[in-house]
Amino acid sequence: MNLDLFDLSNNGESWTETICDDAIVLRQYLASRSDELLATIKAIEAKAPFRHMKTAGGFTMSAALTGCGDYGWVSDRRGYRYSKTDPLTEQPWPDMPEILREIARECALKAGYSDYQPDACLINRYVPGAKMSLHQDKDEQDFTAPIVSISLGVPATFLFGGLQRSDKTIKVPVMHGDVVVWGGTSRMFFHGVSAIKSAYHPFWGESRINITFRVAG
Ligand SMILES: O=C(O)CCC(=O)C(=O)O
Ligand SMILES: [Mn+2]
User: Fold this and answer.
1) What is d(CA 129, CA 126) in angstroms, rounded to the nearest whole number?
2) Is the pTM of this model over 0.85?
3) Ligand 1: which residues within 6 Å by Cβ?
4) Residue 35: which residues within 8 A CB-CB, separation 6 or more?
5) Domain containing 117: what range?
6) From ligand 1's centre to the CA of 210, what distance in Å?
7) Do the domain assignments include residue 83?
8) Residue nearest atom 6 in ligand 1 by C-alpha distance
9) Residue 158 CA: which ligand 1 atom is closest?
10) pLDDT digit of tens for each residue in the chain (217 aa)?
11) Residue 63 burial by CB count (10 A; 0-12/13-18/19+): exposed, middle or buried?
12) How many domains does the chain have?
């Protein structure tokens, strides 16, 4: 039920674990970049505040969301879609900072994808009890591009399943600085996050931040 630790290569600071075909975790890859990532998220948040979006069914999502880049993911009574404008501020989403572009490119390259150029970066903030139900990332235009997903702050359990919602999920513990990259045959796999347990992180307090890159437009 837990992560299979085959294909484990430790380069001293960060090591790569394989979740399944075409899905990897770059363990501790960003652990030493906490300061710059905190400043980067704060700057985005100042322009596009975190907010709790509503689903088409009228439920309020427990994770708060913001974003940057050409497109932001939005959800309301009309459903899920990407938008060039932040509905809260009615302004374009903040530019994607170079540091995030660079990290996304590097992580995609580690998974074998060269020249990854995401145009959407979603940022989720979870507090204890918040979770994300199993879903597919399917509102993007380009499914050949992978998803790069950074975890910061308190630990979480990332659930990674298969093409059907009912497929068995693998529980992948994700810690501050870990990066999950999935694409190819796993690009459309259902995934989610279990309810966050109460914990404390020196940079992020009780929160978990997830930064997810996609090619949306
Ligand atoms: O928080 C996570 O690790 C996953 C987030 C996610 O799947 C999403 O934003 O679509
Ligand atoms: Mn997702």
Assistant:
1) 8
2) yes
3) 122, 124, 132, 137, 149, 158, 191, 193, 210, 212
4) none
5) 9-32+97-214
6) 7
7) no
8) 192
9) 3
10) 344 444 444 445 899 999 999 999 999 999 999 999 999 999 999 999 999 999 888 999 999 999 999 999 999 889 999 999 999 999 999 999 999 999 999 999 999 999 999 999 999 999 999 999 999 999 999 999 999 999 999 999 999 999 999 999 999 999 999 999 999 999 999 999 999 999 999 999 999 999 999 999 9
11) buried
12) 1
